[in-house]
Amino acid sequence: MMFRIIELNETDIAQAVQIWQNGWHDAHASIVPKELVELRTSESFLQRLREHSANTRIGTSDGEPLGLCITEGDELYQMYVSPKARGLGLAQALMVDAEDRLRSAGHSSVWLKCAVGNDRAARFYAKCGWTNAGTRTVELDTTDGVFPLQIWRFEKTLI
Fold it and tell me: Could you count the other beta carbons within 10 Å of the beta carbon of residue 133?
């Protein structure tokens, strides 16, 4: 399968929201507090995607969105791939693109949040050269305000 990494456009927002929402619930519903799961609705993903649309790129195949990656400052903010594209190289392509964008923005030291217990993602990040710098508590923005969550902070120095 061949992938193209492109800027998010208005026609792909609904599919990108579905990829993010489905991926988030698949990865997190069983490992984060129930209260956070209840706050992660379609509307919340749409609102967050619109807020970060300028920093969002999507991976497509034959014009179909299959993954997304969002950067914010020196952070790889979000990355999700639909189940049908997992294991086919799209996540790796999105990671390379994200690291290139972060590097081009002048960041040599970058980081990302990974929910404690999201072992599949943690293995992927380690495979991509990211280092687990330990557990932290972060304050996530939600429609109900700030929600504290334990995360693994991964870091990488870009060359």
Answer: 12
